Amino acid sequence: MAVVRKTDGNPVKDNPFVLKLNRSIRLDDDDLAALADLLARKVVVKKAKDIIVEGYEYKALHIVESGFAIRYKLLHNGKRQIVKIILPGDIIGFPACFYEHATFSVTAISKMDLHHVPLEAFTDLCLKRANIATALVWFAAREAAIYAEHIVDTGRREPLERLAHFLLEMLTRLRAVGCASGNSFEMPLSQEGIGDVVGLSGPHVNRMLAELKSEGLIATTGHEVKILDMAALQILGEFRPAYLDRTPIRDPGPGRPRAR
Questions:
Q1: Mean pLDDT over all residues of the chain?
Q2: Residue 43: what are its φ and ψ, rounded to 5°?
Q3: Is 3 left (phi over 0), alpha (psi -120 to 50) or beta?
Q4: Distance (Å, whole) CA 236 – CA 223
Q5: In degrees rounded to 5, what are phi and psi of residue 218?
Q6: Integer angstrom CA distances of residue 181 from 176, 184, 186, 225
Q7: Which tens digit of pLDDT belongs to each residue from 16-43?
């Protein structure tokens, strides 16, 4: 069982969740103080541990400081569909927490450091700090956009195209939280796991990766993936990263009121 303890790591400004909020709206000192209180409790989760089980009642959110997890649906025939890879800075249980019971399961695929946030504390913060609530609207919009792209992947893109799109999405998301170097990143999923994201079998993923490598678009060393021809891979996967980011809300300037 995970143990809850006080954080004693980096300042709140360096937390990946706070960095992501700051990308969409400028947070003031009062916002940062409120977030420091929100992130005061920390949970360490081991690899392969269930964080949320479909059908269970929501009692808390978990904000990811480090590590990776998957949000997925397990079907009656044993097949699994991964709907989201959860990275540092993401919120486990948002926006699904507005339902009474969990609609998907979440399992850690590495050791994770999580901030344990009771639902009541989360909703109180949104009511009191409009800047933070506004930034969280962006979180929800981004989740919806990612899911929409995955529907397009499985519905209309060919296997090689959807794999190209998936690799570029992973690189872009990992870069945003400082977990990728240049055009290289560590893939947190096995080939079978990748298949559960893009709707392909493990062997099919292996063949598609081999084709991308033979065409000089990517290289792999162990779990590391390196994009060799970014432009060509973007064309192949019809990848436009705008759905993963946004222009920050402009500061209203001196003399004009800001959201509180």
A1: 88
A2: -120, 130
A3: beta
A4: 22
A5: -140, 165
A6: 11, 5, 9, 11
A7: 999 888 887 888 999 999 999 999 999 9
- Encoded tokens for 69: 């997890």
Please tell me the predicted confidence (pLDDT) of residue 152. Answer: 93
Here the tokens at position 256 are 């004009």
C-alpha R_g of the chain? 19
Which of 167-194 are b and which e, b meaning 16 or more Cβ less than 10 Å from the residue's Cβ?
bbbbbbbbbbbebbeebebebbbebebb
- Give per-residue pLDDT as tens, 149-191: 999 998 899 999 999 999 999 999 999 888 898 999 999 999 9
* pTM listed for this prediction: 0.85
What is the C-alpha to C-alpha distance for residues 68 and 53, in angstroms, rounded to an integer?
Answer: 16
Dig out the tokens for 207 from the structure.
């063949």
Structure tokens belonging to residue 13: 């400004």
DSSP state letters, 167-233: HHHHHHHHHHTT-EETTEEE--S-HHHHHHHHT--HHHHHHHHHHHHHTTSEEEETTEEEES-HHHH
Instruction: Find the range with the poorest average confidence among 107-116, 134-143, 225-234.
Output: 134-143
Helix/strand number for the chain, H first, E second: 8, 13
Nearest alpha-carbon partner for 186 in 199, 196, 177: 177
Domains parsed from the chain with CATH numbers: 4-147 (2.60.120.10), 158-237 (1.10.10.10)
